[in-house]
Design goal:
Helices cover 49% and strands 13% of the residues. The chain is built from seven helices and six strands. The strands form three sheets. The protein has a two-stranded antiparallel ribbon. Strands 2-3 form a two-stranded antiparallel sheet. A hairpin with a 5-residue loop joins strand 2 and strand 3. Helix 5 packs across helix 7.
C-alpha cells in the first residue's frame, strides 16, 4: 500500500560496490546493504536534507558518471536504481555541473548545516574511541592512556575524557549514532555502531 500524499519517485544513483561498512553490515545483520554517492563525494546508505544523494534521470548519463568515478577512485562503482513512494525529495539532488568534483573524491562540506553535522559525527566517533580505549586498557596502562587520550581530546575539542563521556550521553551524540545506525552517515570503518553504543553505555556509568 502506498504512502498517502507522496508520489512514486525513481532515480538512478551510483553505488560503491565494495564499500567496507556495507560489507560489515552484510556479515553482522544479513541481507544486503548499500552505499551511494552523495553531494560531498562520500558514500551513504540514505541521503539527508543536509547531505542528499546524487541522482540521475538518464541511465546512460549515470553510467558515464560511474565510469568517471571508478577511474578517479580506482574502485568498482556501478549504477543502481531507487524507487518508491517513501522517498523524500529533499534527500536527493539531481546531478549537475556543480557536482562534477564529487565524482572524483571527497569534497569539503558545502553548507553550514552539513559541516556542523560532520563535525558532530567526527566528535562522536573520537569521544567514543577515547572512552573505549581507556576502558580496555590494562590496569597498569590506564593512567598513561587516560593522559594520552585526554591530551588528544583537549587539543581537538578542549575537553577531557570525562567531558567526552558526558557528550556521548547527550542528545547531539545520540542523533549522530542513530543516523550512523540508519546508514545516513558512515563511521568510515573507525568504529562499529555497536562499539559506539557500547561506548555510550560506558559513558553513562562514568557520569
Amino acid at each position: 500500500m502506498g504512502t498517502p500524499n507522496r508520489p512514486y519517485q525513481s532515480f538512478f544513483v551510483i553505488e560503491h560496490a565494495g564499500h567496507g561498512s556495507a560489507a560489515i553490515e552484510d556479515q553482522r545483520h544479513g541481507g544486503q546493504h548499500y552505499r551511494f554517492l552523495n553531494v560531498t563525494g562520500r558514500w551513504s546508505a540514505r541521503g539527508t536534507h543536509a547531505v542528499p544523494l546524487l541522482t540521475w534521470k538518464d541511465r546512460q548519463e549515470a553510467e558515464a558518471a560511474a565510469t568517471i568515478a571508478s577511474k578517479a577512485r580506482d574502485r568498482v562503482i556501478k549504477v543502481s536504481s531507487l524507487g518508491g513512494d517513501s522517498l523524500v525529495a529533499d534527500r536527493f539532488a539531481a546531478f549537475g555541473e556543480r557536482h562534477a568534483d564529487a565524482l572524483l573524491g571527497y569534497l569539503p562540506y558545502a553548507t553550514a548545516a552539513a559541516m556542523k553535522l560532520e563535525e558532530r559525527r567526527v566528535k562522536t566517533i573520537d569521544c567514543a574511541g577515547a572512552v573505549l580505549r581507556v576502558h580496555r586498557a590494562m590496569d597498569e596502562e590506564r593512567t598513561r592512556i587516560l593522559k594520552d587520550e585526554g591530551g588528544l581530546l583537549q587539543q581537538a575539542y578542549r575537553i577531557t575524557v570525562f567531558s567526552a563521556a558526558q557528550f556521548l550521553t547527550g542528545k547531539k551524540a545520540d542523533e549522530v549514532i542513530t543516523m550512523l545506525e540508519a546508514g545516513e552517515l558512515d563511521t568510515e570503518g573507525k568504529l562499529s555502531v555497536q562499539e559506539l553504543r557500547d561506548a555510550v553505555q560506558l559513558a553513562k556509568s562514568y557520569c
